[in-house]
Amino acid sequence: MNDDKKQEVQRTFSKYADKYVTSTTHSSGEDLPLMVEWAKPEKHWSVLDIATGGGHVAKQLAPYVREVFATDLTKEMLSNTATTLQTIDNIHYVKADAEDLPFLDQTFDFVTCRIAPHHFPNPERFIQESSRVLKPNGLFIMIDNIAANEDNLDYFYNTFEKMRDPSHNRALRITEWKNFLANSQLAVKKEHTRKKKLPFENWLTRTMDNELQMEKVRAFMQSAPQEIKEYFHIIEDEGTIEAFAIDEWMVLCYKRIR
After folding, report:
1. Where is the signal peptide (predicted)?
2. DSSP letter at 100?
């Protein structure tokens, strides 16, 4: 089952690699400079960016550190990103599974992962691996879409994401992530939750090109109860969805010494 899910991720990101490089949701945002502000990276650091996608985190951090290892499960995505960022000479590209990293224990000063863990079939394993490759007192930043604590909101969000993107596994609740972190020597230093506004059509077509399937996603969201529409800030104009918002969590941790 896990192999099937990972193959689905590879199919999706191979097909739409360019869109993740140019996506404004991924290429911009207050969280990218905030990563630098929170972590205060140093010039001697070796950094690992897990599931780099379009390489936006690697690009952001590269000027501040010695080297960045940008990894991704999808070779086509990684190759496309390497070509886009070819003028940056301290980024190394490695095809790697977030749940089985090809690096020795205690290799990195800083590990990052942004807007990707909801694709991972075994998120707890990803957290364990992130901790394993971190040096003692090393830093870890994760940014991802999250589910609300209420069951109906959790169900609604994960359902429409899965409809739109077959490589979506599940957006977890913060409480679930904190359990994984606590069990992996990662202590929370700082956290931040925000509503992330998404332009609907840009979001929809990033992973879809079948009009029938896209219409199913539109209908699902438009038929939602009013309280759910309000929670997700669904903006409609004459029967068309203009935009909506989802919850995003950013967390900074350090690796505790046993």
Report:
1. none
2. B
- Let me know the angle formed at the C-alpha of 91 by 117 and 53, rounded to the nearest 5 degrees: 30
| Burial bucket for residue 60 (CB in 10 Å: 0-12, 13-18, 19+) | buried
C-alpha distances out from residue 42 to 37, 47, 64, 130, Å: 12, 10, 6, 19
CB atoms within 10 A of CB 210: 8
pTM of the model: 0.89
Beta 240-255 vs 235-237: how paired, if at all?
antiparallel
**CA–CA separation, 73 vs 173, rounded Å?**
24
The domain segmentation of the chain, as residue ranges, is 2-150+168-195+247-255
Using alpha carbons, select from 76, 69, 65 the residue that is nearest to residue 11.
76
- Mapping DSSP to helix (H, G, I), strand (E, B) and coil, where does residue 34 land? helix
Dump pLDDT digits (tens) for 216-239. Answer: 999 999 999 999 999 999 999 988
Torsion angle, CA of 204/178/69/75, rounded to 10 degrees?
-40
- CATH 3.40.50.2000 fits domain 2-150+168-195+247-255: no
> Whole-angstrom Cα distance, residue 252 to residue 92?
23
Listed residue (23, 85, 31, 4) closest to 250, CA to CA:
31
109: left (phi over 0), alpha (psi -120 to 50) or beta: alpha
Distance between CA 108 and CA 133 in Å, rounded? 6
Quick: pLDDT tens for 94-140.
999 999 999 999 999 999 999 999 999 999 999 999 999 999 999 99
